[in-house]
Amino acid sequence: MDIYLIAILLYVGGLMAVGIYKSRTVKTQDDFMVAGRSTPTWLLVGTLVCSWIGSGSLFGGAGLAFRTGFSELWFSAGAWVGIVIVYFIAHKVRRISQYTVSDILEKRYNVVARLFGTSAIIIAYLTIVGYQYRGGARLLQILTGLDPEYGRMIACAVVILFTVAAGMVSIISVDLFNGIVMTLGVLLALPLAVDAVGGMGQVTSLPAERFMVFGGNDAWWALGIFLPTFFLLLGESGMYQKFFAAKDERAARRAVIGMIIGVVIVETALATLAIIGSSKYAALAPFLQPDGTFDKATTETIILHLARFDLPEIAGVMLLCAAVAIILSTANSYLMIPSTNIARDIYQRFINPNVSQENIVRFQRISIVVLGVLAYVLASFFTSILEMALTAYTMVGAGITPALLAAFLWKRVTVAGGVASIISGMGVTVILTVLNFILAEPLVEADYIIIPAVAASLLSLVVVSLATSPSPEEKWKPFIENMER
After folding, report:
1. pLDDT value of residue 155
2. Ranges in the chain, pLDDT < 50
3. Domains (ranges, CATH) in the chain?
């Protein structure tokens, strides 16, 4: 057993031990779902950064950077701009003190909005969890040669066990450490990777388009990869749930500042690492196929490839542990959210409103296991992590974000307008995704699905709201006043 595998086993074992230890502190629904609403700024920063930067960045974004160069940052920049906007509403969201985004949707609209919003979140987040499993499987394959199918099973089991242990308490408890490992591992690797591939001259010998704004593509392409992360960030249920976990409004808002700094640094560093790696491997198999095109799935492994085969041993271990931190922290958070939706928005809201604190926690733990297995099944329907990421981001970004933001920012939005927005955004995403599976050639490439989906959502929101009677004051006043205070 080599040092790389030993280090990863010790790292995962340590995280699991923390989760099991923290499980003793979980007594109530607040403890399990929102960490007792007592999280300070410094812990909130760590968990916000870790939950956002996942396999979508480590694999999907890295593969895109390998193939297109620095223009990949349009993909990352969508989230950066979204975080800036979130800064201005984070403390107001905390003031509402709910559990889930679906709570907000029902409060501002109605129960139909809650149900469709919950459905969109569950589908999207299980897709995101699924590609964390695939990321874990690729890591194990590079280290041990293990069949990816078995690797996905192992990743699935680890994620489920950790999340079941203590819920949001365990996630937040380890994410600060994960964030430190992630940042140090990636930043340490940058200068060493340049030396490993043959120096800066080798990197600058890449085609000029790799350093261009659109990387040989056009503005529509940039918009297509910018909008999914932008709209997802603004409607990201995990982020809002963590705002509800903050100890107060000030902690929620200050954490957003730390989040944007951490996300910009780590995502830029990951893209740069992938580009450095491409200067050595872009013309080599298996990254380059015999027909002269890139193998997308293989290009998505470039950072792990550098860590295992090119970097000095200690730096490689650090980068691989950073990869584990990225995969595990994101998978835990995104599995936690839909389980909260099922427990809170379906079971507690409609089936058993008087459920005891002990039983709601038990029910959510069972939900985590079931959803974790469903995420494993869902992961088999996509060919690349980037494709999964763009589809999931669009589901939330088009299905939830417009109606969610309108709840806080536009008093004229009506119940019918909000519901129509959620259904149309979600519906267009599902229809186009299914058609892409069925048809020999995609009807709309995954890079561009966000454009018609968001257009349908926004159009429905505005047209239906203006065509229906304004909502009564008691519907909009708590949200608008909340924003003005």
Report:
1. 94
2. 484
3. 3-382 (1.20.1730.10)
